Recover the amino acids of this structure.
């Protein structure tokens, strides 16, 4: 289309979003009257040139103009400002305990908006208007008015504070062609309690619901920052600026880390794998230098474009490479990739989208992925119990062979011979050897255990372990129909067992016998009568035990666990009348007191559940007099460490990759918070474990600092390695999450320093900040 082509000629990136937004502003039947240009860098001249070209080609109305609001630009439709629209106003000033709705004349809002409206319609013959915004105006209110949100927020604080933190919001989004045109919110409490407001919003939404091309989405959140930003690049810049403006804004800090984590961490590990890079470089150079005729090169899944750069460098010497194409699915990685690059690398540990389908085996653990990906050598008691066999061989240069595998015409029978006696098999580990050049057979990349490769191995778990005898043969059939690796086996599984699919985090929690015993012991010390128990741990194990033993009358637990809880209850002859299933969002509306409340303020990857930490005050209000709330206290501990493995997982260190300047782009996504760690982390500990701070179970700001003695000053500091101590009740000892247990449900996290820090002294100073239930530490200086 001509319209799209013109937009694309001005903006190479995000042109679809820009085109969709301008169309909506231009369409008279669409209530959207303005578009805030937040799709990257632009300027007044470029926007004016764009609108001029669209108008010359009669693709938009003459009423479309560019408006500047301080440093931001809007594209507005003047015609939509002739009529005064009705809005719902919500006061979110930071001085308030909670948001409240108000009338137009309460803060001279009507006067301010009318001044803005008159400025706009007075410029109907111009292409640009620089709106005069008085210092007393609330800029977010003006922004919402220009876009024409039905709900406008206002705050009167000089420091731009608001009271939306942790407030439950009802969010409305208007979507067309997979692009979000409008996204606005209103506090749930205000929406639920005001029928007039509900009717106003419903009427406003009807404009879109009456047209098939629009989709209206509604959902709830208590994070007002996230819902305002849908584009990663702009959101990252926004949150970086927010962190720079206020280092205590940990909500912005957390969102920044989340955005950076959208780029898979294995990119760093792969780019830092010098052996892998050298092998590909060698193969690429060989085939280009020894190829016949004119060569086109394609890099499928190009990532940062490293392999394409290798091909480009060869092309500078040998000019018979005509075109180099880089193909990448991820927008983030595509943005990082250089232009006109190429070769082929499509192998990862999910080669062929591996999937282990073990005959009639019914998996216990629900999985988003058919296997686990991990470095098996890091599993403390891992060992191979059979001989290794080659299961499948694919020639990627033979299309006929690949088609036969893909169509399921090739099924390979394999025999795995046991090398242990009276020992168990728990699953299968799969890896590959990649032969990059048949003319150089020694140029191989292997991902076998302990190879040092950046690739993890694929681990397919059995639902239950099977006893093997020495020399016992395990027969498997391997096929790859439609790109899905299927393995059938003849192992005897106890068919009398009934399998129930559950979340893997629940399995980890239920397998942590030591922690469950500590929970039961803590509750047993509480001698008061318990009528109602609220168990919001990973799974309400303790609550179920108490209900089965008749020590409580009613158990309240999460609605998401309802099916599993009812299944277990039926097998233990527990009446369903003893349960109530609720969501966390219902906590504020409960009119009941609990003699026992069990919480688990940790997420599965090791970090604090900041939402639960912030909501502790709400749970305390539900606590009956003399009731017990678990945990009573959580304390953060840390160790300063040196870890090359951790650094290579977080940012680029490889010299060859740096030479190509890829690090300049990809290190923008280097994260400071590394999750899902345990005691197997390869590191050198530079300090003993030290107490950082007790976690305040609230949503307030807390700051402190401490001095830590170093026991090794010869190595640079890379990170702070965290763990916690949990005091379940005042009558019990601390439970340490940093245990050597193989079945611990607690993971560890690390705060990675932005750069290596070499300390010239015997001690180091560390600052601690907690805000919105999020914690952050910084290594400051020597003392």
């Amino acid at each position: 289309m001509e319209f799209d082509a013109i937009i694309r000629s001005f903006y190479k990136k995000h042109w679809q979003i820009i085109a969709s937004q301008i169309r909506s502003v231009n369409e008279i039947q669409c209530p959207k009257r303005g578009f805030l240009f937040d799709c990257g860098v632009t300027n007044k001249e470029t926007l004016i040139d764009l609108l001029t070209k669209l108008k010359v080609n009669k693709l938009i109305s003459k009423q479309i103009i560019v408006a500047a609001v301080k440093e931001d630009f809007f594209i507005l439709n003047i015609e939509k400002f002739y009529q005064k629209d009705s809005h719902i106003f919500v006061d979110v000033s930071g001085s308030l305990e909670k948001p409240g709705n108000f009338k137009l004349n309460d803060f001279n809002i009507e006067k301010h908006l009318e001044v803005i409206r008159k400025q706009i319609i007075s410029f109907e013959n111009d292409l640009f208007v620089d709106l005069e915004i008085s210092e007393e105006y609330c800029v977010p209110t003006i922004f919402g008015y220009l876009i024409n949100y039905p709900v406008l927020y206002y705050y009167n604080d000089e420091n731009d504070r608001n009271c939306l933190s942790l407030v439950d919001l009802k969010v409305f989004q208007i979507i067309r062609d997979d692009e979000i045109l409008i996204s606005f919110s209103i506090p749930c409490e205000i929406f639920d309690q005001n029928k007039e407001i509900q009717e106003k919003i419903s009427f406003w939404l009807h404009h879109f619901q009456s047209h098939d091309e629009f989709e209206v989405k509604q959902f709830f959140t208590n994070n007002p920052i996230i819902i305002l930003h849908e584009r990663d690049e702009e959101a990252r810049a926004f949150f970086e600026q927010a962190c720079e403006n206020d280092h205590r804004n940990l909500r912005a800090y957390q969102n920044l880390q989340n955005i950076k984590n959208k780029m898979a961490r294995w990119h760093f590990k792969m780019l830092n794998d010098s052996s892998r890079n050298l092998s590909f470089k060698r193969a690429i150079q060989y085939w280009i230098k020894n190829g016949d005729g004119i060569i086109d090169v394609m890099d499928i899944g190009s990532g940062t474009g490293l392999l394409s750069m290798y091909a480009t460098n060869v092309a500078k010497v040998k000019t018979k490479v005509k075109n180099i194409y880089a193909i990448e699915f991820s927008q983030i990685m595509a943005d990082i990739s250089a232009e006109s690059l190429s070769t082929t690398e499509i192998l990862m540990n999910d080669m062929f989208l591996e999937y282990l389908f073990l005959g009639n085996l019914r998996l216990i653990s629900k999985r988003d992925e058919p296997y686990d990906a991990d470095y098996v050598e890091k599993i403390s008691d891992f060992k191979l119990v059979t001989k290794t066999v080659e299961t499948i061989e694919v020639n990627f240069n033979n299309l006929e062979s690949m088609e036969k595998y893909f169509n399921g015409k090739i099924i390979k029978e394999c025999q795995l011979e046991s090398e242990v006696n009276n020992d168990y098999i728990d699953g299968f580990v799969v890896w590959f050897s990649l032969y990059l050049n048949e003319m150089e057979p020694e140029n191989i990349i292997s991902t076998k255990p302990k190879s040092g490769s950046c690739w993890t191995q694929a681990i397919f778990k059995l639902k239950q372990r099977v006893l093997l005898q020495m020399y016992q043969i395990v027969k498997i059939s391997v096929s790859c129909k439609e790109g899905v690796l299927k393995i059938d086996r003849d192992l005897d599984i106890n068919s009398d067992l009934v399998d129930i699919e559950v979340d893997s985090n629940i399995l980890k929690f239920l397998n942590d016998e030591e922690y469950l015993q500590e929970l039961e012991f803590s509750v047993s010390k509480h001698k008061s009568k318990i009528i109602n128990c609220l168990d919001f741990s990973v799974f309400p194990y303790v609550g179920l035990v108490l209900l089965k033993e008749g020590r409580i009358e009613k158990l309240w637990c999460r609605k998401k666990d309802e099916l599993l809880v009812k299944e277990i209850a039926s097998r233990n002859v527990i009446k369903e009348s003893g349960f109530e299933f609720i969501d966390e969002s219902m906590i504020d509306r409960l009119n009941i007191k609990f003699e026992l409340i069990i919480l688990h303020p940790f997420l599965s990857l090791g970090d604090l559940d900041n939402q639960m930490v912030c909501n502790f005050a709400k749970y305390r209000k539900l606590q009956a007099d003399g009731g017990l709330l678990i945990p009573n206290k959580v304390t953060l501990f840390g160790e300063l460490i040196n870890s090359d493995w951790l650094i290579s997982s977080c940012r680029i260190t490889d010299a060859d990759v740096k030479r190509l300047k890829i690090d300049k782009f990809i290190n923008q996504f280097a994260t400071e918070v590394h999750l899902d760690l345990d005691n197997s982390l390869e590191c050198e500990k530079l300090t003993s474990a030290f107490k950082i701070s007790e976690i305040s179970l609230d949503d307030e700001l807390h700051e402190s600092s401490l001095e830590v003695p170093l026991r090794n000053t010869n190595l640079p500091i890379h990170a702070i390695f965290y763990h916690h101590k949990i005091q379940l009740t005042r009558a019990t000892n601390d439970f340490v999450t940093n245990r050597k247990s193989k079945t611990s449900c607690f993971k560890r996290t690390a705060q990675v320093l932005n750069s290596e820090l070499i300390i010239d002294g015997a001690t180091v100073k560390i600052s601690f900040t907690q805000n919105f239930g999020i914690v952050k530490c910084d290594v400051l200086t020597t003392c």
